[in-house]
Automatic annotation (TrEMBL):
CDD domains, alphabetized: carb_red_sniffer_like_SDR_c
Signal sequence extent: none
PANTHER family the record matches: C-FACTOR-LIKE, SHORT-CHAIN DEHYDROGENASE/REDUCTASE
Top-level taxonomic group: Eukaryota
Gene Ontology terms: cellular component: cytoplasm
Family, similarity comment: Belongs to the short-chain dehydrogenases/reductases (SDR) family.
Protein name per its UniProtKB record: NAD-P-binding protein
Phylogenetic placement of the source organism: Eukaryota, Fungi, Dikarya, Basidiomycota, Agaricomycotina
MF annotations from Gene Ontology: oxidoreductase activity
Length: 239
């Protein structure tokens, strides 16, 4: 039986590279979700090259109906199989605000996409994760993509307050999910500062290095790591 993965926000950036690398392993099948499949040209190319191992599914992480429809499609496609890995990668950063310039609408939009979105994705995929857990072997893993910006202990200053709050919040979500659902390993993952549209060209890490590092972490974490916040190299980051 193949190992089943789902990645959100896979039209570009880290999500696209994760799908490319996951699909390169013959034992994997991957549900590559994105909000606009018709314009996801790079993802379509990856899917064509993977010859049936990449299923492109529409999923807007800010839209509960879209998440539910995607979960139904994945459930139907998997048949009796469960999901082994879910990577909540989709996120946005609508502002580079500081506390004195924070605006309600953009803050709430980021909270909806970056925190409520991953929570609702996990809720709707839980039956498939439980099915994978019941099949025995390695526990299923959910990765919530976080950021060093979400760490208070790292003391990164006043900038990007809305985005940073969303990432602190996803760390807390991950901790709560680990406490509520011990059949799954829940990880808050910092991908590093990566050369993508979000990270910009001056970032430290190439996207292929970040993605391969993340996959190494996710495929080696164990039950005792559930609820933790990890750097791309697997080190624990203080909350
Ligand atoms: N790059 C970095 O340095 C860095 C550092 C720390 C953490 N991160 C985190 O790593 C993850 C990936 O970041 P990235 O650098 O690859 O970002 P990116 O290049 O900006 O790509 C963001 C992805 O999220 C998707 N997305 C945006 N809104 C969405 C929605 N409503 N529903 C579904 N998908 C949506 C985008 O799809 P569209 O193409 O449709 O817009 C795109 O595929 C994010 O969680 C980010 O916060 C990145």
């Amino acid at each position: 039986m193949s190992t089943a993965w789902l990645v959100t926000g896979s039209s570009r950036g880290i999500g696209l590279e994760l799908v490319r690398q996951i699909a390169a392993d013959a034992s994997n099948v991957v549900f590559a979700t994105c909000r606009n499949p018709s314009s996801a040209t790079k993802l379509k190319t990856v899917s064509e090259e993977a010859k049936g191992k990449v299923h492109i599914v529409q999923l807007d992480a800010s839209d509960v109906a879209s998440i539910k429809a995607a979960a139904a499609t994945v459930t139907k496609t998997l048949g009796s199989q469960g999901l082994n890995y879910v990577i909540n990668n989709a996120a946005g950063q609508s502002s580079t605000d500081v506390p004195s310039t924070l605006e309600v609408d953009s803050f709430l939009a980021d909270m909806k996409l970056n925190v409520a979105g991953p929570a609702i994705v996990a809720q709707n995929l839980m039956p498939l994760l439980e099915r994978a857990a019941a099949a025995g072997g390695r526990k299923p893993v959910v990765c919530n993509m976080s950021s060093g910006m979400g760490s208070i202990a790292m003391d990164l200053g006043a900038r990007m307050v809305s985005y940073s709050i969303t990432k602190s919040s996803i760390n807390m979500l991950t901790y709560k999910q680990a406490k509520e659902s011990p059949n799954v390993i829940w990880i808050a993952q910092d991908p590093g500062w990566v050369k993508t549209d979000m990270g910009g060209p001056g970032a430290q890490l190439e996207v292929d290095f970040s993605a391969s590092s993340i996959l190494k972490v996710l495929t080696t974490v164990t039950e005792k790591d559930s609820g933790s916040f990890r750097r791309y190299n697997g080190d624990v980051i203080p909350y």
